[in-house]
């Protein structure tokens, strides 16, 4: 435990007044600060970490991060360590695996660094932010073409149980690069409450693509105490900020699974007897999630950047569930995976309409990707939206009753899904390829239907049906 | 400053408790309890701890005060000192506000950036106004003259767009003893002395005003003029008047922020106050980056010269988020008092309501609907009622238009914030997820939105074109009938409908693509002048009328659909800019010509 290098203030409180779930109440404490980090020793003297949630001149409420199993009121000893949770940071941590609180898990020594950071971080002054606009090519048409990712963006993946979000995320991590640079990303991977095999899948993937030397892994797996997960994303983001803004690297932060994080938050809130908000989640869920997601971006006069990709599984595929709902309000868009597409064998099953990248408008087009990119994407969206309408009509009247034009739309919809959205897990499409496929697919519709494209663009790219 | 300008908030005669006696006894997130606070006032500002974290008293109980702290309270300890300031949270109002960007408690973010770097450190203190910069003052009064509250003392050119009027503060009136001659002064210099019944008062160019108190006015006026926004669906179908209040509710991804940005860019208000309340940091950066570059359509000057930004992003402390809304509206009131038409954009009022909820929960208040405090409706009403068209104390006309974004959880409009907001606004621009998913922007839903200002602004529009009411009404009817027909189509397909009804479907399609959608990124279309809005709408409505006639005469719908003018009309919004009305007129002639030809063909039969 001493690897945190926290100076020992000596004072040890013996005995607690109350133990309730993950919470301890210690009475008659002196000189303890809010959010201070605490070492809790059980009867055998084994230490666990905790932090102060509420402090008054009479008592401190301590949240034990590693579970309260085996703690007794009488024998528990508590030491207050005199500061908030600090993470030692150094670029030497690249290539290493740590637990959810930043302690080595790979058998290596604890990182040596005098540089220790408060994991809560500070808010970036909006005036000091640099607007993100450098296009990242992920090699996936559904993302590059329709929901482009830019450096410094926070773009989550909304998924469901049983959907291939891990494969999609791993593919993005393997392929993501800037158009004009060969510089790859450093990756910070934070796992909250996921199963061993999921974590293992990612680590193997990093290994196989030769990226492991550029990755810092923080694992708080499903069998770790759930409260620990509350700190894991903060630890990961503190590491990412150090790499980005002190070491000038481009960092991609991959967090999975945010739903587990929110569950832990709910668990602690309930244990504290807080008034619950929607579906039992605490009323401050929005602010709490924002304190994580907003830790992405770029800063003026700084070379580095933090790009965030959080994976969350929507309970019962419900996008209006508080976790995806509040996430969507904070992040700059969302990639939504669709079960129906997945069942039809389309990979990546990225839903055409509900997916969105808010920063796309500034990162694509002339000077970034290609001049026709924004309007082409807009037209594809519009046509695909119409396809959805036609499909619901087909369910009622049958395909025979459709007008000729509507039948063409149906064909377009099929082609769009099979040729544009669908690709192999190993297929890394350049943005040009993506756009060309987009035009190929779009050209199966009559030219007069493409209202959003100007005549110049149509003249240049629309494929006339001579062949 | 030697002048206290607000008598109703003069410091209480009770002296602040000495530094030793007032201290923290409990810390729970942003809520801090302090003892030794007997004699403190509600909403008094205090500085907490050694770092001097700024907070506001929200509850008093005997010797104890509950303080809501605007900054992160990590490592704050019981026993830490608390210092009282004996004044409520107040803003400094004077030249230099425009073009600046503040956090929720009026700390200048550029100044903080310069002073302490890219990250916002706790306890940072920066002056809101640059009080050393010399400003050119031009007096408008002469010594010996009686002056009243709200009267203009003189003017300072603040930006090339706005001449800042220095006013007599609301609580001062009397005889002017001296006034500074034209010249250059700093904000600290006394520029006038007024003999009041209570003795002489020295005035500088700066006033202080508590954020939670509305600034006084002489009276309210009727709304008579629209706030022209350059957005077709808003100006034409659901207009808002100068001094009105509107809400933009919408689930995530429906384009609330883009719509707010569009309105902030193109509205014909004199001044824009944009409050980013609990939203994304990058969005504020976007405004900061764009507004100096975009030109105002009326004056050709950069938009930043008429904009004040308040940025309290979602990761900044929640208590400062709660107050940021009041900071924004107080700044707006100050410029309104100078006889300006101000528009306030609050993005998003839901985040503000959530801040209320979060703080209420920490205060252990009894929750009402969905955990929101029972006072939610009152607080919303108080906020929206600070808008309006008024006659100022100085006798000038001014107005504040409020547009509040609402972010209902799950896009469900029946939640408390949307429902309560609806009671206090008269213009409702409902954003629709399905439209947004189809990338139909602005995704304002034409059947679910409404405006009660139509009657108020009708005269203004009819002055431009007497046909306005008629064309607008016909558009709404077409859209309504289309909605009903779509329900039939969903059941049995479009083929069973007669051509006259399918014509309505076609016209509605043309309206969607050619009128209702408007790209925020298209050079020619991002701002649509009212005259062009009318011209485009007339074009489509005329097309519908003539086509319906011809179909009645026996022509099949296909013939209308195939007319070469149809795709041209759909693309007209992007093809012809605001100064190309003749081209639109030519297109109308072309269309009429094509219909004439068609008509002749079917008359012969």
Can you tell me the residue ranges of chain A where pLDDT is under 50 for at least 5 consecutive residues? 1-8
Strand content of chain B: 15-25%
Whole-number average pLDDT of chain A? Answer: 90
* Estimated structural class of chain A: alpha/beta
Regarding CATH, which class of the largest domain in chain B? Alpha Beta
Q: What composes the largest sheet of chain A?
A: 10 strands, mixed
Give the CATH architecture of the largest domain in chain B. Answer: 3-Layer(aba) Sandwich
> Could you please say which CATH topology of the largest domain in chain B applies here?
Rossmann fold
CATH architecture label name of the largest domain in chain A: 3-Layer(aba) Sandwich
The figure for the number of domains of chain A is 3
Number of domains of chain B: 4
How far apart the termini of chain B lie comes to: 89 Å
Helix content of chain B: 25-40%
Beta strand count of chain B: 26
Gyration radius of chain B (Cα, Å) is 28 Å
Q: How does the SSE layout of this entry go?
A:
The complex is a heterodimer of chains A (467) and B (605).
Chain A (H helix, E strand, L loop, with lengths): L11 E3 L3 E3 L2 E5 L9 E5 L5 E10 L2 E6 L12 E4 L5 E3 L8 E3 L16 E3 L10 E2 L4 E3 L3 H4 L4 E2 L6 E3 L5 H11 L1 E2 L7 E7 L3 H13 L6 E6 L11 H15 L3 E7 L1 H14 L13 H9 L3 E3 L5 E9 L8 H9 L2 E4 L2 H5 L12 E2 L2 H4 L9 H25 L6 H18 L9 H12 L12 H7 L6
Parallel strand pairs in A: 9-17, 14-20, 14-21, 16-17, 16-18, 18-20
Antiparallel strand pairs in A: 1-7, 2-3, 3-6, 4-5, 4-7, 5-6, 8-10, 11-19, 12-13, 12-15, 19-20, 21-22
Helix pairs in contact in A: 2-3, 6-7, 10-11, 10-12, 11-12
Chain B lengths: L22 E6 L2 E5 L8 E5 L4 E9 L2 E6 L12 E7 L1 E4 L7 E2 L6 H8 L18 E5 L6 E2 L4 E6 L5 E5 L6 E6 L3 E3 L6 E5 L2 E5 L3 E4 L8 E2 L11 H6 L7 E5 L6 H11 L4 E7 L3 H10 L16 E6 L5 H19 L4 E7 L1 H14 L13 H9 L3 E4 L5 E10 L9 H9 L2 E2 L4 H5 L12 E2 L2 H11 L3 H25 L6 H18 L13 H23 L4 H5 L3 H11 L5 H24 L1
Parallel strand pairs in B: 8-21, 19-24, 19-25, 20-21, 20-22, 22-24
Antiparallel strand pairs in B: 1-2, 2-5, 3-4, 3-6, 4-5, 7-17, 9-11, 9-14, 10-13, 11-12, 13-15, 15-16, 18-23, 23-24, 25-26
Helix pairs in contact in B: 5-6, 7-8, 11-12, 11-13, 12-13, 12-15, 13-16, 15-16
